[in-house]
Amino acid sequence: MSALRTAPPPVTAERSSATWRLIKAESTLCVRDKVGPLWGIGFPLILLIVLGSVSDLREPVADAGGLTYFDLYVPVLILFNLAILATASLPTTLAGYRENGVLRRMRTTPVGPARVLAAQLVANFVIAVVAMVLFIAVAGLGFGVGLPKHLPGFALAWLLAAAALLAIGLLITALAPGRGAATAIGTVLFFPMMFFAGLWVPISQMPPLLRNIAHYTPLGAGMGAFQDAYLGHFPSAVPLLTLAAYAVACAFVAVRWFRWE
Amino acid sequence: MPPVIEVRNLHKRYDDKIAVDDVSLTVQAGEIFGILGPNGAGKTTTVECIEGLRVPDRGEIRVLGLDPLHDRAELTRRLGVQLQAGHLPDRLQVAEALELYSSFYPEPADWRALLDGLGLTDKAKTRYAKLSGGQKQRLSIALALIGSPKVAILDELTTGLDPQARRDTWDLIEGVRSRGVTIVLVTHFMEEAERLCDRLALIDAGRVVMVDTPTGLTERARIEQRIQFRPSRPMDDHLLTSLPDVSSVTRRGELVIVTGNDNALNAVTGVLARNQIVAERLRVEQASLEDAFVRLTGRRPEPGHR
Ligand SMILES: Nc1ncnc2c1ncn2[C@@H]1O[C@H](COP(=O)(O)OP(=O)(O)OP(=O)(O)O)[C@@H](O)[C@H]1O
Ligand SMILES: [Mg+2]
What is the pLDDT of residues A77-132, one digit of tens each? Predict the structure, then answer.
């Protein structure tokens, strides 16, 4: 009788192809969703080009090791991209999946809902890599901003920043009761985080109290590490550890408290 | 042969609402097993416990010999599920969804054939959010069958489908069954239950009222015949009420409505003939499964009734 299967199915091959297809599907969906590409890449890219054309921004910033205002905007916009993905794109999509029963439907398949989460993370990560490379290339080729002088240090700082921000996105998803709440929490978090990255005022120009706070915010720490790498040093321990701590703590809480339904 | 699905004394409550009080069921290999019952009877909760989506408070469940909670990986490969409220990402296209889901299973069915069988071929490139309710429903049926399951649990198979699509879906399900797939069908449509199901469980208020074939269920409800006609000339009700097989006579305008047991029709036509009355526009209503359903769930089972 066909109801009684004898040979176990070839699990591994199927699994890897399922994972790959999920990543493909989630990436396609991210692009169709437009939040990531438009607000995460398009908007900061235009900002970069506009700011690059303002000659006043080519003045060196005091206490920034000789970097100009525009030089500082390149890492700020790289962080802007991560912040959009973490506070708008990822939590809204995943909380929507939960609300609409997408994750529940996945629970009835051999693949399970955790891999949808993973595929979403990968899709957002890919968008972030594309954005980072694109911003650095446009700033370099278009406006003569040099590469970070300490490339491995920059790469490490970026990876830690991406991990911290995606973990924050997961945390928002885990804690928000629904899609609307996830969007609201994301928006409320976005502006202070970007403030402390120095979007409006460079960190070195902030009053001491704000500057001290900034160093311990995820984007402020990211900015500190990026700045070190741009100036040619391996980023100092405090910002790197701060980023790592955000990544680990947020991911832990998110995984611990994640609700699938 | 061991049963494909075995549920024993299932009990499940949400906070203070008992959704499933005491349900026991056995589904045999190759049959289409229907679950009928009024809204809120606990049908969805029961099948979701069988699927391993909900954790029962008490009771034992085996599907293909597997425990739905502990043997999830194995069970999900062999069980196809259509959820009452299932969803996909809004921007995912129909063909993409089918291709994606078919990659989840070790021996997937041909998704193009499924698409065709469910009349969705011209919607292959349409996004989920742009589908009509019935089209979403059809896609959800396709996804339940995509993994070539040994057992399929379909919650409200044809709710929201137009009559033609409903009939096409029935054909599809009969085709699936003829390949040896065991099917559990939660339904509100008596016609569907009568046409597809080998056996039915009637669930009310979290309990199984009875399990029988569609015909058996109808017979056990002991519903009376209803005879309706227009007498060709005025007549006295007493002619009919005096018959032992007749239990009631009522009038609606010029129509006479008689209810009674299986012999009532013979008795009534006999009396009318003897009195030279012709029964015009004669209509006889046999008890349907729907009548049985109303009759059997209209009153609660007595306390202590198991
Ligand atoms: N998640 C839940 N939380 C609380 N109560 C629930 C939940 N799901 C269902 N119920 C309650 O449990 C009872 C049984 O629900 P269930 O969905 O199993 O009924 P059903 O027989 O499938 O009904 P329908 O025919 O309307 O689909 C209902 O009274 C319902 O209100
Ligand atoms: Mg239901």
Answer: 999 999 999 999 999 999 999 999 999 999 999 999 999 999 999 999 999 999 99
ipTM of the complex: 0.85
pTM of the model: 0.84
Q: Is B103 close to A21, i.e. CB distance below 8 A?
A: yes
Query: Which amino acid appears at position B241 of this protein?
Result: T
Q: In the structure, what pLDDT confidence band is assigned to residue A197 with cuts at 50, 70 and 90?
A: very high
Residue A256 contacts B, CB cutoff 8 Å: no
Task: Determine if ligand 1 sits within 6 Å of the CB of residue B17.
Answer: yes
Q: Which of residues 86-105 of A touch B (CB under 8 A)?
A: 96-97, 100-102, 104-105
**pLDDT digits 0-9 by tens, A52-89:** 998 888 888 887 788 898 999 999 999 999 999 999 99
